[in-house]
Every structure is written in structure tokens, then in C-alpha cells.
């Protein structure tokens, strides 16, 4: 059964979901205590941000042991308990896998720094001599995704000349060398370790990374970026797939940021990853033409190789939809409308925790910020990472009995789970109803008809309308400033109040 093809994945940013032990940081027991909520919400699977031991320079995306659990989140028993209980609730569990890099505190990297130039210990990473007379210039001009050079010079040492190491992200995240077979063997061991424990799959971080054209010193960021999306990376994904194929019903999902739909499709060829997360929908403005183009591109891309699409509006790196699409009630309304578009699309969907509550980005004072590796002007990824509010009247809104690791704004009280649960007009109720219809309505449950999965209708300027092929389920979105006539049919679900027979601006509807 290819359950992932239309599954709803719920992304849990582990530090921010629920804290069970009062240290102010979310943990695995906290997640376990919320499984009843997740079942009520109606999600099919969880995607947990990295749970591995980490110095937390990048909140777990800097890993020191891919086969362990950081004490901040719990231990291996807590993982086993969470998987067992989630399965009892009918929810699958997938985990983030960081295979492009390790932490600079990983035993491999420490051994590399302590080993002679040219030794096998150093061959697991990318070390290069510097340029210039005394090697004080980086080996090439590559930039890190977080800003600044992608190279850091290692500390002075006794075992050889000082070299530079490559890190496409922060200096605390040295890139692994994927031409080294030990690196491959270790990933295989990691995959089996977690698969044997019962995880249902992996979200592969920076899945277009791993292999680089290091001898190409051309400017990174050019059309053919030598840092990312190199052909060799597909061999890694074939290995991942071959291992997963020994375990029934497990899924590999790539976080793939590539420059074209054709390149994107290559990641989900039949012997590679099962799904690749589309980033174009989240990158689109609230504009029907842009949204439609993103949808068409992704469907054509994955359709060309027979894979399912998978749609994401936000994650722990992006501004939340309720802020990104506009300020205040406008942003809220647009985020709700886009949720109905996303959830009507054929394929899998990812909901980032808190988006089902319509949370806006939190405005954090500079001294409260924790995302120290991101260096892009005033932007910060902390605003979308603020803990989930559960109860309006409890300290820290029920997230923790201690001090939350990021301050929770007072506006989150009215958006807490308890404040929204019984309110039929709430964003939480909208998500619950949409997920219920995905499970029950023939527009979603009918096996897909042959041919393109969507049929587009002509729509007024600033609007889009599509039907899921072979069904009566239609979704329409109005991004224009004026109300437009509703397409014919009975409204099943609307993102905001309808205006007689008109679809107001910033609104989407499901009709049958
Ligand atoms: C991915 C993650 C991001 C992390 C980066 C480095 O882009 O989504 O949060 O900082 O990889 O691991």
C-alpha cells in the first residue's frame, strides 16, 4: 500500500511542541501526550525535526550521533514508546535525517582535526589547502546558505598544515564527503537502525546537497550551482531507496530545492525517493497565477516519472503563512484560503505545527532570538519556531511548566488549541473538517482517474478553479480585490464567510 501518496504529514518542530519535564524545551514525551490531539486533527503521519544528540547550534540539524537521541528530547525508550503509541492512534512516524553534514563536535570531525593531512579520518569531510602564499584565503569563493564563506580554516595543529573545511551551512556543520564509502556505509547503518525500531520513514534534509563539484571554482549561485543538485547525488538516493525497499511501507521524502521542474523530477524516479517536497508553492505570493503556475509545474514534474506530488505551505525555516500573505486579519484569511488549496491538491501534504491554529510569526526582541547561525540581515527563523499554545489560561499556555525557550506572545492565547477546539469558525476547525473530508469524501477517496490529476476551469482574473479529475470536487480561490461569482455546486467547506453567491476576496471554497 502506497499510503504516502495522499498522506497528510504533520511536521513537529520538537523543541516547540510540548515540554513534559519543565525545562522549557519540547520533548518526545510531550509529543506522546498530545497524540489524542493529533488523532482528532486527523493527520496520517508525523515528521519530527532531528532528535539526535546535538550541541544545538542549529537546533538539532548539527548531529553528533545519528543513532542516538539527545537527552533534551528523551532517550531511545521514549522513541520506542512514541512510535508504539502513535501507531496505536493510527499515526505513522517519520524522522528527519541529516545526511549532508554532521556537527563539528561529531567524533568523526574531532578525529579529522586530530589526524594527519591526507589521513582516512580527514577523508570523510572536505579539507583543502587555502589559497594565497600562506594559505590564508579560502580554497574557492563558495558561499554558505546561512551567509558568509562556505569554508572555515581549521585551528592551528601539530599533525599537519592548517587546511580549510567545507560547510554549506554553518561552520558548526562540516559537510560530509559523499565520495567516501565509509560515509555511505554509515548512512545505511543509520537507516537500518531506525527502520528496525519501527520508524515509518525519513525526511532527508538538504537532499539536493551531499554531492558537490568541488573542483569547479565557478561562482556558487550561478545557473549550474556546483554546490547542489549534482548528478552523483542520485546514487545516494538509490542506495537509500534500496535499503528502504527491504522494509514494507516505509517512505523516503526529500527536501529538494532545485532550479527546475525537470531537475526536481529526477529525485522521485521509481528507484529513488518516494516523495520530494515542493518548495514552489510556499515561495508563491498570494496570487492566483503564481499559485497555479507552481501547481502546474510540480504536477508536470512528478507526473513525468509517475510519482505523487507533495505540497508544503511552510516549515521551520519559513515565515508563517498567516504573516507571509499579509498583516492581521488579511494574512489570516489568506492563510486559511491557501490551506484549502493545498489540501485539495492531489498528493501528500505537510502541515507545520501551529499553522493549523493560524499562528502568525512572533515578533521577538533581538535578545530573545536563538537562531544564531542564520545571517541574513534582519530576517530570523525564530519567529516561526515559537512554542505551540495549548491552553489560554495556563502559564506558558500549557506548553511547559517552566520558562519556554522562546517567549510566547500574548496574542497566541486566543489562538491556543483549547480556545479554538469548540469554535466551529476557527482555523483549527477548518483544518479538522478539511482533513475529515480528505478521509471520507468521494472527491478524495475515489481511486485517481487516468490522465492529468487536475482539470482547470476558466476563472476571472485573480482567481483559479480546479476539479480533481474524475470527481465532483472543485476548489476555487479568489486572490483578486473583488468578489467573484461562485462556480456552480454546493459549498462543502469555505475558508471564510461567503457573500450570497459570490466568493469574496482572500477566500477559497470546496464545492461538489
Ligand atoms: C535544512 C533545514 C534547516 C537547517 C539546514 C541545515 O535547510 O530545514 O533548518 O538549518 O537544513 O541542516
Task: Explain what the structure shows.
This protein has 14 helices and 18 strands. The protein is α/β, with parallel strands linked by helices. It has 3 domains: 3-102 and 181-436, Glycosidases (TIM Barrel, Alpha-Beta Barrel), CATH 3.20.20; 107-166, Oligo-1,6-glucosidase, Domain 2 (Oligo-1,6-glucosidase, domain 2, Alpha-Beta Complex); 451-511, Sandwich (Immunoglobulin-like), CATH 2.60.40.1180. The strands form 4 sheets. It has an 8-stranded parallel beta sheet with strand order 9-8-7-3-2-1-11-10, covered by helices on one side. A 5-stranded antiparallel beta sheet has the order 12-13-14-18-16. It has a 3-stranded antiparallel beta sheet with strand order 4-6-5, with no helix packed on it. The longest helix has 17 residues, at 328-344. It binds alpha-D-glucopyranose. Alpha-D-glucopyranose (GLC) binds at residues 58, 61, 98, 169, 205-206, 316-317.
Structural class: alpha/beta
Within CATH, the superfamily of the largest domain carries the name Glycosidases
Average predicted local confidence, pLDDT: 95
* Low-pLDDT residue spans: none
By DSSP (H or I, 4+ residues per run), the number of helices equals 14
- Count the domains: 3
Order of strands across the biggest sheet?
9-8-7-3-2-1-11-10
Tag the structure with descriptive keywords.
Immunoglobulin-like; 3 domains; 14 helices; 8-stranded parallel beta sheet; TIM Barrel; binds alpha-D-glucopyranose; alpha/beta
Amino acid at each position: 500500500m502506497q499510503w504516502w501518496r495522499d498522506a497528510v504529514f504533520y511536521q513537529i518542530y520538537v523543541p516547540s511542541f510540548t515540554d513534559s519535564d519543565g525545562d522549557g524545551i519540547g520533548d518526545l514525551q510531550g509529543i506522546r501526550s498530545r497524540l489524542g490531539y493529533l488523532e482528532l486533527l486527523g493527520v496520517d503521519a508525523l515528521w519530527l525535526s532531528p532528535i539526535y544528540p546535538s550541541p544545538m547550534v542549529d537546533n538539532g540539524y548539527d548531529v553528533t550521533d545519528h543513532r542516538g537521541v539527545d537527552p533534551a528530547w528523551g532517550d531511545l525508550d521514549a522513541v520506542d514508546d512514541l512510535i508504539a503509541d502513535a501507531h496505536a492512534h493510527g499515526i505513522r512516524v517519520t524522522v528527519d535525517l541529516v545526511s549532508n553534514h554532521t556537527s563539528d563536535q561529531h567524533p568523526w570531525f574531532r578525529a579529522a582535526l586530530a589526524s594527519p593531512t591526507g589521513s582516512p579520518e580527514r577523508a570523510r569531510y572536505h579539507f583543502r589547502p587555502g589559497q594565497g602564499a600562506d594559505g590564508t584565503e579560502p580554497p574557492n569563493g563558495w558561499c554558505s546558505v546561512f551567509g558568509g564563506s562556505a569554508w572555515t580554516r581549521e585551528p592551528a595543529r601539530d599533525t599537519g598544515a592548517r587546511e580549510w573545511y567545507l560547510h554549506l551551512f554553518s561552520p558548526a556543520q562540516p559537510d560530509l564527503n559523499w565520495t567516501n564509502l565509509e560515509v555511505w556505509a554509515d548512512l545505511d547503518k543509520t537507516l537500518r537502525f531506525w527502520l528496525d525500531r519501527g520508524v515509518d520513514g525519513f525526511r532527508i534534509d538538504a537532499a539536493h546537497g551531499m554531492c558537490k563539484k568541488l573542483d569547479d571554482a565557478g561562482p556558487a549561485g550561478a545557473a549550474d550551482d556546483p554546490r547542489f543538485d549534482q548528478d552523483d547525488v542520485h546514487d545516494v538516493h538509490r542506495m537509500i531507496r534500496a535499503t528502504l525497499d527491504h522494509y514494507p511501507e516505509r517512505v523516503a521524502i526529500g527536501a529538494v530545492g532545485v532550479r527546475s521542474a525537470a531537475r526536481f523530477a529526477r529525485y522521485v524516479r521509481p528507484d529513488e525517493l518516494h516523495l520530494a517536497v515542493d518548495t514552489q508553492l510556499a515561495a508563491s505570493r498570494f496570487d492566483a497565477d503564481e499559485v497555479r503556475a507552481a501547481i502546474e509545474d510540480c504536477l508536470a514534474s512528478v507526473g513525468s516519472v509517475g510519482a505523487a506530488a507533495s505540497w508544503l505551505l511552510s516549515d521551520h525555516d519559513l515565515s508563517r503563512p498567516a504573516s507571509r500573505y499579509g498583516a492581521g486579519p488579511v494574512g489570516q484569511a489568506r492563510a486559511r484560503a491557501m490551506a484549502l488549496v493545498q489540501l485539495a491538491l492531489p498528493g501528500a501534504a505537510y502541515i507545520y505545527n501551529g499553522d493549523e491554529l493560524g499562528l502568525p510569526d512572533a515578533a521577538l526582541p533581538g535578545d530573545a532570538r536563538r537562531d544564531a547561525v542564520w545571517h541574513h540581515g534582519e530576517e530570523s527563523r525564530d519567529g516561526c519556531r515559537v512554542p505551540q499554545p495549548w491552553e489560554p489560561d495556563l502559564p506558558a499556555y500549557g506548553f511547559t511548566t517552566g520558562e519556554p525557550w522562546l517567549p510566547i506572545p500574548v496574542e497566541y492565547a486566543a489562538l491556543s488549541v483549547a480556545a479554538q477546539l469548540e469554535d466551529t469558525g476557527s482555523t483549527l476547525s477548518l483544518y479538522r473538517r478539511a482533513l475529515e473530508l480528505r478521509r471520507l469524501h468521494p472527491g478524495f477517496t475515489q481511486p485517481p482517474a487516468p490522465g492529468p490529476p487536475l482539470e482547470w476551469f476558466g476563472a476571472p482574473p485573480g482567481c483559479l478553479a480546479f476539479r480533481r479529475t474524475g470527481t465532483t470536487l472543485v476548489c476555487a480561490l479568489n486572490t483578486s480585490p473583488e468578489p467573484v461569482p461562485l462556480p456552480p455546486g454546493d459549498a462543502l467547506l469555505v475558508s471564510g464567510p461567503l457573500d450570497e453567491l459570490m466568493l469574496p476576496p482572500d477566500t477559497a471554497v470546496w464545492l461538489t
